[in-house]
Every structure is written in structure tokens, then in C-alpha cells.
Amino acid sequence: MAVRVIGLGSAITAAESLAAIHVVAEDGRCAWCWDEFGIWTPHPCTARQWADRARATVERTGRADT
Ligand SMILES: [Zn+2]
């Protein structure tokens, strides 16, 4: 996935909205990736991993440079 330079505020917003929808389903898949794209992806999917990492990085460093 290409990394774009975006503002800190929009990175947080994007990370939080991604984390809110990419949730685990009963069988361990990502519910959103399956419903929206028809892709069976083990949770956490790459989008969720990015979101978690972005949020953790911002909390730790105050910068969204993942
Ligand atoms: Zn997902």
C-alpha cells in the first residue's frame, strides 16, 4: 500500500474509522472486508493493522508517519 503524506488529524480520523468497521467476525475473518469486498481476510486485516499501528504511533510519538 502506498503511503501518502496526510495531515495528522485526517490520519487519526482515517485510522479510527477504519478500526471501527474492520472488526472481527465469528469465524475470525474481517467482517468489513468480507461484506464490502467479498474477500475472506483473517482479522486483523491489513487495513486494521495499519489503523492500529497508526493510532499507536500517534499516541507514542504524536506523529502519523507510518
Ligand atoms: Zn478489513
Concise description?
By secondary structure, this protein is mostly helical. The chain has three helices and no strands.
State the oligomer: single chain
**Fraction of residues in helices?**
55-70%
β-strand number: 0
Overall form? elongated
Average of the residue pLDDT scores: 88
The N- and C-terminal alpha carbons lie at a distance of 11 Å
What kind of sheet is the major sheet?
A: none
Bound molecules: zinc ion
Radius of gyration, taken over Cα atoms and rounded to an integer in Å = 12 Å
Counting helices, strands and paired strands, the structural category is mainly alpha
Number of domains: 1
| Tally of individual helices | 3
> Would you identify the regions where 5 or more consecutive residues have pLDDT less than 50?
none
Content of β-strand: under 5%
Write up this protein.
With 66 residues, the chain is mostly helical. It has one domain (8-60). It has helices at 8-21, 31-37, 46-61. Helix 1 packs across helix 3. The mean pLDDT is 88. Zinc ion binds next to helix 2 and helix 3.
Topology, please?
Elements: H1 8-21, H2 31-37, H3 46-61
Helix pairs in contact: 1-3
The structure holds zinc ion.
Zinc ion binds at residues 22, 30, 32-33, 41, 45, 47-48.
Q: What attributes characterize this protein structure?
A:
66 residues, mainly alpha, binds zinc ion
